[in-house]
């Protein structure tokens, strides 16, 4: 890709204090997508106070497709994703968690799946990954299974793994969604609320090899319960008019 090429795909990666994971994940993204699609990578540094800003600056010399946006103070993962998508230039967005547990090698298959769908569906279609074989500890897997079951029953989003960080969707679709803290956990429901559709593909999930998780079981659980009721309120008030004519 030349410096003037317009990417079809922007890969957005939110990070906070992930200095050890930046370069390995960037290398994998480039290996997965090189020659398959015109792409860029947008890293959003959510107020890191370790070596992440320095590593990202060095990485730009190695990977010319890399663009970096930095939050002065941490605003959370959902806002970091939203910032990255706002600054992205591709019509399609792929998202990955910055801890290396999502496998970039899954992105080409997700892109092919999205491209294979009918023209009338694609503008409002999100393809989301299902980590069928979670590589987390037993407590985290159990809490996630329970949370996904409750969420799916109440929101009817028909998604077995709403918390998966690897997703692919049109940029304009995301920009039409309501944004709030922790919205990344409810993307499937929000897309359906906007009149879109969600399709699930199985993806690889890997154990964290470097760095420290920013979330524990309890802070995920209680925040998720509070947000769940808010999303239920939004779902009940959704209105998607069909435009009959315009002048």
- Rg, alpha carbons: 18 Å
Main β-sheet, spatial strand arrangement:
3-2-1-4-6-5-7
Q: How does the helix and strand content classify structurally?
A: alpha/beta
> How many beta-strand elements?
7
How far is the first residue's CA from the last residue's CA?
Answer: 41 Å
Total DSSP helices: 8
Low-confidence stretches: none
The SSE string, one letter per element, is EHEHEHEHEHEHHEH
Shape: globular
For the largest beta-sheet, the strand count, sense and barrel status come to: 7 strands, mixed
Mean pLDDT: 87
Helix content: 25-40%
Q: How much strand content do the residues show?
A: 15-25%
Described by its quaternary structure, the protein is single chain
């Amino acid at each position: 890709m030349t410096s003037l090429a317009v990417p079809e795909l922007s890969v957005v990666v939110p990070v906070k204090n992930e200095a050890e994971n930046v370069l390995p994940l960037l290398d994998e993204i480039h290996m997965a997508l090189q020659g398959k699609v015109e792409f860029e990578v947008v890293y959003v540094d959510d107020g890191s106070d370790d070596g992440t800003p320095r590593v990202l600056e060095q990485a730009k010399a190695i990977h010319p497709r890399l663009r970096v946006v930095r939050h002065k103070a941490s605003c959370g993962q959902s806002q970091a994703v939203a910032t990255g998508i706002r600054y992205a230039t591709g019509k399609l967005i792929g998202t990955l968690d910055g801890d290396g547990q999502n496998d970039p090698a899954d992105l080409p298959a997700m892109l092919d799946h999205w491209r294979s769908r009918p023209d009338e569906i694609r503008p409002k279609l999100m393809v989301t990954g299902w980590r069928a074989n979670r590589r987390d500890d037993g407590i985290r897997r159990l809490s996630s299974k329970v949370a996904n079951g409750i969420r799916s029953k109440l929101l009817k989003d028909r998604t077995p793994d709403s918390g998966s960080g690897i997703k692919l969707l049109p940029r304009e679709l995301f920009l039409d969604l309501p944004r709030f803290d922790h919205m990344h956990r409810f993307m499937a429901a929000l897309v359906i609320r906007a009149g879109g559709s969600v399709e699930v593909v199985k993806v690889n999930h890997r154990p964290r090899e470097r760095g420290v998780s920013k979330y524990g079981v309890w802070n995920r659980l209680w925040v998720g319960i509070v947000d769940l009721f808010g999303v239920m309120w939004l779902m009940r008030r959704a209105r998607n008019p069909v435009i009959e004519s315009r002048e």
